[in-house]
User: Which sequence fits this backbone?
């Protein structure tokens, strides 16, 4: 074992507090390397077992000479209670995570379920690699960050992974699926998860470098109408047309059909990365508005900007119980809305809009207003 590798091993054996990350690869002279014998991996496994400061383990599969039969090393990982982040970098796409060292490490964490972060990079999922991943995910229920990058994942392979994620969607927050073979069917499955699972906490989703077209964009945009968690979406380097993305996402962020439709639009998504040729001025403006923390204020700003002729008749039902006739009790809500709007956007002359809205309100309910001549007769 060379001197640097001996120092790395010694730091882990001595449980040094500053040693929180261990990289096992053949390209970094400052880490434990494959020039060591398999017996030295056994020593490393024994040191890992009793270490309490290691937080992150990065293994470059294919570079190292660790044997799958080295039970001391794998048992050491299994006994460790401090490692929470695991990255398996296969270096070569022909290295499958469904067999070999990578598969053995995943099996370890099907028993040691302390992981909160799992990243698999440049792996081929043949030989049931997708099954190995889903088996690990089903056991590690506290994962907040999952990355499957450059793994040639197809729609068929993605669906069971997403089903497993849905079972534990109350913990997952960041999902990285860039540079795979995911297409429109995969987008529909992702959309189903984002829309129909009320427990989902996914706040960032990365889908760059896949086979997504306009159909996939529509599926994802439709799924985000009722979603209030996802704030970052990356779709760059896909075959998406400009008109589709602009229209779909502008309508998602601000459906100008009515005041109520604007209120029910998505006010959470504020980081959207599209192919370089996409992104109209309106879309940029809406994403900027969504960055405001107070989403009620965001809705008001959108109404004032894109619905200047405020039709207060949409507020008739406010304050009325189901089955009741609409009454004037909605009018104070209209006036109060304008008072709050004045505080939110001081650049707009609210008086004219308020008077116009109240006038339309009264015209829409003529039977509730008795002419003075009749009232005094």
Assistant:
């Amino acid at each position: 074992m060379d001197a640097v590798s001996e120092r790395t091993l010694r730091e882990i054996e001595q449980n040094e507090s500053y040693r929180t990350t261990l990289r096992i690869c053949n390209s970094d002279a400052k880490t434990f390397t494959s020039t060591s014998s398999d017996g030295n991996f056994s020593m490393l496994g024994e040191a890992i077992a009793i270490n309490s400061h290691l937080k992150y383990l990065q293994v470059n599969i294919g570079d190292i000479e660790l044997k799958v039969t080295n039970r001391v090393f794998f048992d050491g990982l299994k006994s460790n209670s401090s490692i929470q982040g695991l990255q398996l970098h296969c270096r070569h796409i022909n290295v499958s995570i469904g067999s070999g060292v990578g598969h053995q490490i995943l099996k370890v964490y099907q028993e040691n379920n302390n992981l909160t972060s799992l990243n698999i990079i440049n792996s081929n999922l043949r030989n049931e690699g997708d099954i190995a991943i889903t088996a690990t995910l089903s056991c590690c229920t506290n994962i907040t960050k999952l990355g499957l990058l450059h793994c040639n994942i197809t729609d068929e392979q993605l669906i069971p992974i997403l089903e497993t994620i849905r079972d534990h969607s109350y913990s997952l927050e960041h999902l990285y699926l860039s540079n795979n073979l995911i297409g429109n069917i995969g987008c529909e499955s992702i959309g189903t998860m984002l829309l129909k699972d009320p427990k989902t906490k996914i706040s960032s989703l990365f889908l760059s470098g896949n086979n997504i077209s306009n159909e996939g964009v529509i599926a994802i945009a439709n799924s985000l109408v009722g979603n209030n968690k996802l704030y970052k979406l990356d779709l760059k380097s896909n075959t998406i047309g400009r008109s589709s993305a602009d229209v779909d996402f502008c309508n998602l962020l601000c459906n100008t059909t009515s005041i109520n439709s604007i209120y029910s639009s998505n006010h959470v998504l504020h980081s959207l990365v599209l192919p370089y040729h996409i992104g109209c001025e309106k879309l940029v403006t809406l994403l900027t508005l969504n960055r405001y923390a107070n989403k009620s204020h965001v809705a008001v700003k959108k109404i004032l900007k894109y619905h200047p002729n405020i039709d207060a008749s949409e507020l008739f039902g406010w304050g009325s119980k189901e089955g009741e006739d609409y009454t004037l009790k909605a009018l104070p809500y209209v006036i109060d809305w304008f008072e709050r709007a004045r505080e939110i956007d001081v650049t707009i002359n609210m008086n004219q809009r308020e008077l116009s809205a109240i006038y339309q309100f009264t015209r829409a309910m003529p039977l509730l207003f008795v002419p003075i001549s009749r009232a005094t007769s």
